[in-house]
Every structure is written in structure tokens, then in C-alpha cells.
């Protein structure tokens, strides 16, 4: 006979005990900066900052194109900083996520967006000799010579940043599949 208030059913299992542990192959703390992935993420942040500064320093002749470039550059920069901080401060070991898969998805999606941003920035740069106003009698160029040079530099650094995101995607895929 059971004591009063007791049931014959066992207590429900603790749901936290069945939550899978995080799968992390990257080290936490400052050790991440000694890996290839950590160094490439650092380069993504550095080159992304340069792209952000260069695009912001020009007069925006085509707001639709360069607005998207700016959005991608700022968003990717912010998310890369957050991603690096997750590993620097050891949160990756506390959050139960497959970090190898998350790394691959984040860098793969960001690579696609950043490569598109590079193409838009290069397209803006290629319009250097087009007139600013088609109905005008003066032939003022869409980009002044100084802005053209800045736009070339922004295109080069946007390409370099896209390559860094591509390298991170390849490293993450290798880590995820092993």
C-alpha cells in the first residue's frame, strides 16, 4: 500500500538532463585567436570595418545600391563581433547548440550576402563616367575622382572581406563534417 499522497507513477524526467551538450571544436578564450578560424574572423571584422568606413565616407550617388552595401557591411560586422565574443568569453560551452553547424550556416549566408554587396559596390564604381543628371547641360560625373578612388578601395576591401567569409565557410564545413 502506498503512503497517502504518493502515486505509483515515477516523477517526470528532468528535461535539462536530456538536452544535448554543445558540440564545439573551436577553443574558448584567447585561444580562438590562435586558430585559423579565429584569425580569419578577426580579418573579417578588420576588413568589414574598412569597408564600412570607406562606403560611409563617400557621397552616396546611388542610395539603393550603396545602402544595401552599408547594411550588409554593418550587419555582418556586428554579427561577426558577437560570434567572436561568444567564443572569447566562453559562452559557446554554456549554450547547447551545434556550434560547428552554426558556424557553417552563419559564414555561408554572410558570404553570399557580402559577395552580393561586393558586386553592388563594384557596379557603383563602374558608373564613374556616367553623368549625374541626364537632362543637365553640364557633364558632371556621377562620382568625383576622389570618391571614385574611395569606391575602388571599398570594392577591393569588400572583395577581401567576402573572401574571408568564404574561407571561414570552408573551414567551418571541414570542422562540421569531421
Automatic annotation (TrEMBL):
What is one cellular component GO term in this UniProt entry?
A: membrane raft
User: Where mainly found?
Assistant: membrane
Which keywords does this chain's UniProt record carry? Membrane, Transmembrane, Transmembrane helix
- Entry's transmembrane regions: 36-55, 67-92, 104-130, 150-173
Mind telling me which InterPro entries this protein's record contains? Answer: MAL, Marvel, MARVEL-CKLF_proteins
- Every copy of the MARVEL domain together lies at 32-177
Q: Does the keyword Transport apply?
A: no
**Top-level taxon in the UniProt lineage:** Eukaryota
List GO molecular-function terms, semicolon-separated: structural constituent of myelin sheath
PANTHER family to which the protein is assigned, alphabetical: MARVEL-CONTAINING POTENTIAL LIPID RAFT-ASSOCIATED PROTEIN, PROTEIN MAL2
Task: Report what the protein is called.
Answer: Mal, T cell differentiation protein 2
